[in-house]
Amino acid sequence: MFVDKVRIYIRSGKGGDGHVSFRRELYVPAGGPDGGDGGRGGDIIFQVDDGLNTLMDFRNNKKYCAGDGQPGGKRRCHGSDGADLVIKVPEGTVIKDAESGLVIADMSHENRRQTILKGGRGGKGNMNYATPTMQAPKYAQPGQSAQELTVDLELKVIADVGLVGFPNVGKSTFLSRVTNARPKIANYHFTTLNPNLGVVDLEGGRGFVIADIPGIIEGASEGVGLGHEFLRHIERTKVIIHIVDAAGVEGRDPINDIHTINTELENYSESLAHRPQVIAANKIDALYDGENDDAVTLLKEAFEPKDIRVFPISAVSGKGLKELLYYVRDMLDNIKEEPTVFERQFFPEKKEITEPYTVQVDEKDGAFVVEGPRIERMLGYTNLDSEKGFDFFQKFLRDNGILDELEALGIQEGDTVRMYGLEFDYYK
Question: What does the mean pLDDT of the chain come to?
């Protein structure tokens, strides 16, 4: 099964907590602090795997977590680092932030491996906090929190040329005739449910990759039919081949079909409408007059003045295919633009990690109560009995805006502030 869009949850590893311990040896009654540092959390890394061509593996596993760092130990023992998690994806996968839709990474061309989420930093053990005035620190630094993110993976096929056209105009037959691809071929609409890739081999090693995109119908850019799901696969192509039914086997107007498809391309992405194009007037074997038929003449009159060449072809018999392919090769040679790469717009490492806290007044005794997970954790590793620890505590309240919120609630000097069993009087 071909899957080209999935949503997954990723989380890097949490850093290990620093350890609080003191040296205990015979005849050493007052050993110094020897608590070790915590280990670093594992990273989330995406890597291109050339053996993959679908995102199907992600349908059954939606959660990917790197290893957490281990806490530090006694005797200055450093906690082990968490294991990195390498997530393998097919080339052409674009990673987006699910909430904003912004691009985090484009796994294509030169970008084969990229770290998306960094693991948390390990916390420092109490051995790092010994000073001449504080020789027995009873606190250590907790490990840095993990980063987590919900991301969308979108596979945008990498091909030089994209085939577009209404259903049942012969795109799959064309692809099977000119490449080594073997798509399903049948006489009913939407036979092609997946983008099919094939390699065109020309003399002198001048081949190129061509992609058959499922039939585009009117309204495809707005989600009608299957076209909307696969229009993303021609975003990287350099040349577009419109295949139309010149014989009008199903009573369609080939000129109107081309205008309709161009409208859908422009609605989806304005740059697609300005991509170099060529028209393949297919099924001329079903015409009585071959190349001189009025349908082909009308196509040439309508589009060749716009520098869009029209080639009468028969995908079944092979007539006209060689001329078309060499013309497309020359078009590719004359296009000097760089490959389409989606620029990075979202940087997870710069995403502000905030933890909520509340500041409110206790109606019973009028005390100001401050609570929140970060505050509780900070109190767990801060020694308020020491001057250094109390200075750190005051800086924490100021830097996190807690003092500003207390003042906004009308706190006055001498009022009581309560935090998880700790009470103190407020003074500026």
Answer: 81
Could you read off the pLDDT of 92-113 as tens digits, one per residue? 899 999 988 889 999 988 899 9
Q: What is the mean pLDDT of residues 234-253?
A: 83
CA Rg value for the chain:
32
Distance CA 24, CA 19 (A): 15
